[in-house]
Design goal:
2 copies of one chain form a homodimer.
Chain A (H helix, E strand, L loop, with lengths): L2 H21 L6 H8 L3 H7 L3 H22 L5 H35 L1 H28 L7 H21 L6 H16 L3
The structure holds a DNA duplex.
DNA sequence: AAAAACATACCGACCAGTCGGTATTTTCGA
DNA sequence: TCGAAAATACCGACTGGTCGGTATGTTTTT
């Protein structure tokens, strides 16, 4: 059976998330990850070609959760989807909040590492397209005012990312969950046709 | 005279910006910086206590330029200031664009490194206060609609940061300068009282 | 017995920071 | 104003340690 093998792999992934989040990609050594996972270096390199490959595996898993979230909100209307996203904010700020530094690492690595960039840019563009079409649908349905969907999409994604960034720098500087919710409301108010 | 000394220091700073931007804080070694600056390691450690100290010096310089920019727009009205910021976007995306990865590094380091966090959090909060008061002024003057200045401030800063982040990941994915300008316009339109 | 999973010792590269010494600039007394 | 001492700026070899990755051997599963 490969049960033990899968468990080991899962433990490596889990430990990597924890250590990358806490210390960053560079500062978290392979040895650290092995100790945290309670396995040997041999086991690590049996499961992953390199440290970067582990990174990519993590990225892959993350992108898949986003995909399934999008899939889940497939046949709702545009305003409905946005509302749903607003309601998801507490969850995002609680859980993803701890992993934020790691996502930042992803971002940085992607901007400098060709392979990682290749792996992330396609999903990123796909999400942008999805968002854009969502807004376009809203405009066509008449529930949104007449905005450029491309621009509005960037604007909304920017807001989400910027809020997360700010919350990363100054977690206790504001009630971020509340700020996020009200910001979304403000944005929606300027989008929704009265 | 300390002319030579100052020149050396300036060259170190300059080289550090270049290398930190290109490769990141960790990947850019002190040796690399010394070679780039055309000086020896001894000279480096004569001018800076540590690599981190150099990082802080860079941060300091950056914050000072922001301060002077704020100072310059002291006695303008709120909408005027925002318009001015919009006009500054091309410049920001052109020049700061190359240094963006480094600013990300600042951010990440700040979230993990107590000293760097201490150095950045005060200015960050100061800027937030400035922004908030600027919006409050606009509301009181009657040129802005009645929004929570705190929230609006976070929202605007988020947008700027998020756009920069997106442009970092996918520089050729959009005409970012245009997106930035139109996003600002959209935000302003929802802020300005008609 | 064969193959997959895991362990351990080890390697070479790299890196932040040090240290003893040298070159250049500044200070100051004669 | 000149020259020597003091201070500052700079040099580059070296150190102690870390890290990603490998080689080789052992255990566990099939």
């Amino acid at each position: 059976m490969q049960q033990r093998s899968e468990e080991t792999r899962a433990r490596i992934l889990e430990s990597a998330v924890k250590l990358f989040s806490d210390r960053g990609f560079n500062a978290a050594s392979v040895d650290d990850i092995c100790v945290e996972a309670g396995i040997s270096k041999g086991a690590f390199y049996h499961h992953f070609e390199s440290k970067q490959a582990l990174f990519l595996a993590l990225l892959d898993g993350w992108l898949k959760t986003i995909d399934s979230a999008i899939e889940a909100s497939k046949d709702k209307t545009a305003p409905e989807t946005f509302m749903q996203m607003t309601e998801a904010f507490p969850y995002i700020f609680e859980t993803a909040g701890n992993h934020l530094p790691m996502f930042m690492e992803f971002w940085l690595q992607a901007s400098r590492d060709e392979k990682i960039w290749q792996a992330s840019i396609a999903p990123y563009r796909r999400y942008h397209k999805y968002f854009t079409s969502l807004i376009k649908k809203g405009v066509d349905e008449g529930s949104f005012v007449d905005v450029d969907p491309q621009i509005a999409s960037r604007l909304i994604v920017s807001t989400a990312m910027g809020l997360l960034l700010q919350s990363l720098l100054d977690p206790k500087g504001a009630k971020w969950e509340k700020v996020a919710r009200e910001s979304t409301t403000m944005l929606l108010n300027s989008l929704i046709k009265k």
